[in-house]
Amino acid sequence: MIDISRRNVLRTGAAITTMAALPRFAVAAGDAGRTALPIPPEVRANAQGTIALSARRGTMNFQPGPSTVTYGYDGAFLGPALRLRRGKSVTIDFTNQLTEPTTVHWHGLIIPGNVDGGPHQPIAPGGQWRPTLSIDQPAATLWFHPHFYPTTAAQVIKGLAGLIIVDDDDTDRLALPSRWGIDDIPLIIQDRRIIDDGQFFDRMNIIAVVNGYVGTVPLVNGARYPEARTTRGWVRLRLLDGSNARSYRLKASDDRSLFVIGSDGGLLESPVEVKELTMYAGERFEVMVDCRSGRPFDLVALPVGDPIMQLPPFDAPVPLVTIRPEGADGVGALPASLAKLPPVPAELPPISQELVMNMFRDQAGMMPLVNAGLPMGMGGGTSMAAMPQGDAAAMSRNASGMAGMANGGKIAPEVVARVSRLIEDEPALSTEEQLSASGVNGKPFALHDPGFTTRQGLPLRWRISEGTDQMLHPVHVHGCQFRIVSENGRPPQAHRAGWKDIAPISNRGVSEILVTFPQPAGADAPYMAHCHILEHEDSGMMAQFTVG
Ligand SMILES: [Cu+2]
């Protein structure tokens, strides 16, 4: 009898990778057919303070054979990098050239609800939207993407996502590497599953709604294992986990240090040196890498704990992108201190809001995987417990539960085949089933639910948890940048202690945040608080709230 408790089902894996030695990748030799890393074009406001932007349909060729039908902003896939400056306003002149409604959410911008681009601001096919955004927050790497309910997941899969780079004077003075695409390199990391006819797999069946999108093809800026030629010096990587659901444990193939300089909402106080960087869906980190030697390396994704996310090729370290620093000498340096962040007070306000993530159909989504033989009972790699300080514990938990595993800690090929068939062949849920599968505080999202209200301009303490659920939920809150004050009762890791707009929880986790909402959001255009696993969001794991 298989124990189908969530604990056993979900705790698969980190130790698989911890035990296996990380291969030293022989970075592919120069040229030899490598795709150059696509660099999203920078777009700045024109003399009238306007940026024109459109969502449109296109095609891409990710592999030989039929082209893939895609969506993009101003192009076939993904979009430009909007460069916005603190203290300035910009009007986005947006046109929806798609044949379906969409919205454009400015993820991480601190702006009023009526320009936030949430589900209450749909843009009809052929329609336009002209929000004016007043930028008043520190320099940061943000992004924009659709937020139409309930098709956000599908629209992001097709390719709708772009970067927002906020610049400010303080950060300019630091003289960080800032030559776009030369020593300041944006990396949008995503995964896709391409099916027989060359199209992106995209179906909201019970497996997707519970487990999130499971891709087989890693893409960086829309390219497979591309190569970036950079200067020889310090190189700045602006990382976005733009995947629908997948987490990444990033590492340099030659074990060189990653110096984290910024998180979701801006720079840290000082660089934090790590050997491995875990990112959850929707999160951003800025990282500096010492490339003064000129030696190339790969940014590699190590396997994560969620068993279904260990299907090949993600059952082994996957090289995502090659950084080849063979250009001219760089100009940047790694500053000792970066930004002044307000201290988190020792005395916190009382908890004013609880957000509990709910999954109502998790057993239905997990049982088929169990029956297909997906291995279980091992330590979880993306779980909070298996963040770096927990790896030893994850390893020690990992002695059993090897059923379904082939030699070398990999999932047996027949199990991979069965689970892959489930992922692709399970029929789509009815709309009603989809919209009632997940929730926040006991109920699924509903557009006309009044939601809750919160105070403007005051520091608040919120508690984000998942009750008895154990699945990973990277929870995003609109209208703010917050500080994580504790994760499961412990302080966050140093590189997660700065400005954040996503707080991940898993394994019955609890995250407390200190948050201020500087801008208003009314009942006609409330802010959202939701899981950034887009299949969870689109199945109801979202709540709305007003600020005033
Ligand atoms: Cu979730």
Explain the layout of strands and helices.
Blueprint: H1 6-10, H2 14-19, E1 42-44, E2 50-60, E3 68-73, E4 81-85, E5 89-96, E6 105-107, E7 128-129, E8 132-134, E9 140-145, H3 152-158, E10 162-167, H4 169-173, E11 184-192, H5 206-211, E12 217-220, E13 227-232, E14 234-241, E15 248-252, E16 258-263, E17 266-274, E18 276-279, E19 284-290, E20 297-302, E21 318-329, E22 351-359, H6 362-371, H7 391-396, H8 413-425, H9 431-435, E23 438-440, E24 452-454, E25 460-465, E26 473-477, E27 482-487, E28 499-500, E29 502-505, E30 510-515, E31 527-531, H10 534-537, E32 542-547
Parallel strand pairs: 1-4, 2-5, 4-10, 11-14, 13-21, 22-25, 24-32
Antiparallel strand pairs: 2-3, 5-7, 5-8, 6-9, 9-10, 11-12, 14-19, 15-18, 15-20, 16-17, 16-19, 20-21, 22-23, 25-30, 26-29, 26-31, 27-28, 27-30, 31-32
Copper (II) ion binds at residues 357, 473, 531, 533, 536, 541.
Features:
Immunoglobulin-like; binds copper (II) ion; six-stranded mixed beta sheet; mainly beta; 548 residues; single chain; 4 domains; disordered N terminus
Could you walk me through the main structural features you see in this protein, from its secondary elements to its overall organization?
- β16 and β17 form a beta hairpin.
- The protein contains ten helices and 32 strands.
- The relative contact order is 0.17.
- The chain starts with 5 loop residues before the first helix and ends with a strand.
- The chain has 548 residues and is mainly beta.
- It has a six-stranded mixed β-sheet with strand order 12-11-14-19-16-17, with no helix packed on it. It has a six-stranded mixed β-sheet with strand order 23-22-25-30-27-28, with no helix packed on it. Strands 1-4-10-9-6 form a five-stranded mixed β-sheet.
- 12% of the residues lie in helices and 34% in strands.
- The longest helix is centred in the C-terminal third of the chain and has 13 residues, at 413-425.
- Bound molecules: copper (II) ion.
- Copper (II) ion (CU) binds next to loops.
